[in-house]
Design goal:
By secondary structure, this protein is an alpha/beta fold. Helix content is about 35%, strand content about 25%. The strands form 4 sheets. Strands 1, 2, 3, 4, 7, 8, 9, 10 and 11 form a 9-stranded mixed β-sheet that branches. Strands 5-6 form a two-stranded antiparallel ribbon. It is globular. About 0% of the residues have low confidence. This is DUF362 domain-containing protein. GO terms for molecular function: 4 iron, 4 sulfur cluster binding; metal ion binding. It holds the Pfam family Fer4_10. Keywords: 4Fe-4S, Iron, Iron-sulfur, Metal-binding.
């Protein structure tokens, strides 16, 4: 059985978070069960973009602080690293409050700048992952619980996509991002190349709606932990009330028969999942696609009708160019003082929406998708 621990922490008060993390790890043997004196321990938070902590886009700095201090108390050296979706790591760390924690605790901020080729073990033959990610003695995955417009939910497994450096993320979106199932398999294959020794999820204030960058904060007062990232994701999704059929990572993990993918192999302690759930299920992202599972010839013909396409929100878009640079197939340009989209080239990965600093892009449904939604509402 794969053990997942759930603990309640009401706020980001420093002492409360510290006590909550200690309680969270106690059933797993405490931090000393994962870290040895003298080891270099990479703590990999969610550093998606340069947003303040209260936006719930990134791992909260007080959760990072507690983990750093517990690592230091074992006699190990904590490193903090990630490759943000947009912007340099230093800027994201500063804006999110994580840089101040790193400096105050004496931890080391490690940029993911250099990649190392790694042979794949499944569908994809090779990957290039950040050298510090691969070379650290131990890896602690410090994820944020959020909804996600492409994968429905981002938690432990998706957080490890940050091991892919900079522009290589766009290349993977271009290679696998047109098919959610394939993209999920790619994320799982990255996870299998370097499985974290410990996974901790910051869900004290999670995100719902159009996550991972433009949703709304959702207070849940919860922390999750476990040694198996897939199992932790399964339980986090259960607590969030997300329908299983929309969890592409979980579906792909079951297809691969990965440990932790099946609910009956997971045991929970601390707060029971049914008691941890408070309020209605998480509000999900905009349903943007119903074409997956169709034959290829139909996908090509009906793609624009069965998907949503990004458009600029009048009055919000300032032509900052972030979406232009972030688009993997280069389907967005600025023409005549406004954004122009090549919807034939667009792969609907929604990186533009994910990384837009002003939430200035919305989704417009194709005709058939709009009809399907109308029928669903009527039933």
């Amino acid at each position: 059985m794969h053990q997942v621990v759930i603990e309640q922490v009401a706020s980001y008060d420093r002492a409360a978070v510290r006590e909550g993390i200690v309680r969270l790890l106690a059933p797993l043997g405490g931090m000393a069960a994962f870290v040895r004196p003298g080891e270099r321990v990479l703590i990999k938070p969610n550093m998606l973009s340069a947003k303040p902590a209260e936006a719930a886009v990134t791992t909260h700095p007080e959760v990072l602080r507690a983990v750093i201090e517990l690592v230091q108390e074992t006699g190990a050296t904590p490193l903090v690293g990630d490759s943000p979706g947009i912007g340099g790591m230093q800027r994201v760390a500063e804006r999110s409050g994580m840089l101040a924690v790193v400096e105050e605790t004496g931890a080391e901020l490690v940029p993911f700048a250099e990649s190392v080729p790694v042979a794949g073990k499944g569908t994809f033959r090779s990957f290039e992952l950040a050298r510090p990610y691969l070379e650290a003695d131990r890896l602690i995955n410090l994820a944020k619980l959020k909804t996600h417009e492409m994968m429905t939910m981002t938690c432990c497994v998706k957080n490890l996509f940050g091991s892919v450096v900079g522009g290589e993320k766009a290349a993977w979106h271009l290679k696998a991002g047109a098919d959610k199932g394939l993209f999920a398999r790619m994320l799982l294959e990255i996870y299998l190349l370097r499985q974290p020794e410990l996974n901790i999820v910051d869900g004290i204030v999670a995100m719902e709606g159009n996550g991972p960058g433009s949703g709304e904060p959702r207070p849940t007062g919860l922390l999750f932990a476990g040694t198996n990232a897939v199992a932790v994701d399964v339980i986090a999704a259960e607590v969030a009330g997300i329908p299983r059929e929309l969890l592409y990572l979980e579906t792909a993990a079951r297809e691969l028969d990965l440990p932790g993918a099946r609910r009956e192999t997971i045991s929970c302690c601390g707060v029971a999942p049914q008691l941890a759930r408070s309020g209605p299920p998480f509000r999900l992202p905009h349903l943007s696609d119903v074409q997956f599972g169709l034959p290829a010839f139909l996908k090509d013909r009906l793609r624009n009708q069965l998907t949503s396409r990004p458009t600029a929100v009048p009055g919000k878009c300032t032509l900052c160019g972030v979406c232009v640079g972030a688009c993997p197939p280069k389907a967005i340009t600025v023409e005549g003082g406004k954004l122009s989209f090549d919807y034939q080239a667009c792969i609907r990965c929604l990186c533009c929406r994910e990384l837009c600093p002003r939430a200035a892009l919305e989704l417009k449904d194709g005709t058939l998708l709009k009809l399907i939604k109308t029928v669903k509402r009527a039933n």
